[in-house]
Amino acid sequence: MPPMPVNVVQVSPRKVPIVVEAVGTLEGLKEVEVRARIAGTLQQQLFREGEPVQAGAVLYRIDRAPFEITLDAARANVAQAEARVEQSRRESARLAGLIADKMITQREADEAGSSVKITEAALLAARAQEREAALNLGYADVTAPITGVVQRSIRSVGAYVSPAIEGGVLATIVQTNPIRVRFALTEPEAAQVRKGRAHEVRLQLPNGEFAKEVGKLDFAASVVDPRLGTVQLRAELNNASGAWMPGQFVRVQVSTGEQDAFLVPQAAVMSGEQGRFVWLIGADGKATARPVQAGAWLGNDWVIYSGLAPGERVITSNLIKLRPGAPVQVAPAAPAAASQASR
């Protein structure tokens, strides 16, 4: 049989990133519940579900009338208390002059002084009630506690809401920019991450490529899950485009540094009973299977950490037909490729 024509790539070491891959779950940077702090009828909803809102924006309005009445009554009580304080102070000042002339007893003077303190204390209580009434009236406008995307409204306009009804929860706001990804690594992988200096994190896009946005680790657990033997980690990434959503499952790639390795096309790396291997063209022009230690993918290539030497030729075509010791030869370049090379 004549030698089988094959395509090859000549490998040479290069600096490649040290990466660890895992499956993670996206979660918002913050997730806050919008709650009603007072009881009343929900009169207005001032947002569209699923749209971003700014912190402090009014989301709901609760019927204000009962709280306006309560505030007016509290203000009236304050006015009455102020009048009583003025009256008691005048009376105390008048009696202070009479006791100097011994026209009243010391007991009457002491009672006048105590009356001033009692009316002043009543004034403080009335003012506190006024502030409480004003605060409750302010709660009639339910505002967004954070900037984020507001989710589905739990209560509809016309419903009676109260802090005692399901905790007063009206909706939930999720801050999606930046966004966090939570994932777990095995103990050896976590140890490799701890040894590395640069901890760049990327997420895989639906088309298989990894996004350009680079995140950073912001949390690494100090304990190992005894059931799974894994370590929990978390990273924070920019999500200004809104492409990522909380709850989404993604593939995570963590870069921990660089090291020397070989890059081989993915199709050239085979799997067998002894693990992964590649086919090489030996010095005698025959095919040879070589076991290799493969890492993660880098683009369209597979990172090979050991098993190859600089200058060796890795076969990339007709792999199924190859047998150990089979004669092979490098296929000539295609005419199109040759013409482009000549240019």
Descriptive account of the structure:
It is a single chain. With 343 residues, this protein is of the alpha+beta class. Among the domains are: 34-62 and 140-172, RNA polymerase II/Efflux pump adaptor protein, barrel-sandwich hybrid domain (OB fold (Dihydrolipoamide Acetyltransferase, E2P), Beta Barrel); 66-138, Helix hairpin bin (Helix Hairpins). Helices cover 25% and strands 39% of the residues. It has four helices and 21 strands. The strands form five sheets. Strands 3-10-13-12-11-14 form a six-stranded antiparallel β-barrel. It has a four-stranded antiparallel β-sheet with strand order 7-6-4-9, with no helix packed on it. A three-stranded antiparallel β-sheet has the order 15-16-17, with no helix packed on it. A hairpin with a 2-residue loop joins strand 15 and strand 16 (275-281). Helix 1 (65-100) packs antiparallel against helix 2. The protein is elongated, with a radius of gyration of 38 Å. The two termini are 36 Å apart.
Structure described in brief:
It is built from four helices and 21 strands.
Major sheet characteristics: 6 strands, antiparallel, barrel
* Low-confidence spans: 336-343
Helix tally equals: 4
| Beginning-to-end CA distance, first to last residue | 36 Å
Structural class: alpha+beta
| CATH domain class name of the domain at 66-138 | Mainly Alpha
So what's the overall shape?
Answer: elongated
Q: CATH topology of the domain at 66-138, what is it called?
A: Helix Hairpins
Task: Please write out the topology.
Blueprint: E1 4-6, E2 8-10, E3 14-35, E4 40-45, E5 52-53, E6 58-62, H1 65-100, H2 106-138, E7 141-143, E8 148-150, E9 160-161, E10 169-186, H3 187-195, E11 200-203, E12 215-220, E13 230-237, E14 249-265, E15 270-272, E16 275-281, E17 287-291, E18 293-298, E19 301-306, E20 313-315, E21 328-330, H4 335-342
Parallel strand pairs: 1-21
Antiparallel strand pairs: 2-20, 3-10, 3-14, 4-6, 4-9, 5-8, 6-7, 8-10, 10-13, 11-12, 11-14, 12-13, 14-19, 15-16, 16-17, 18-19
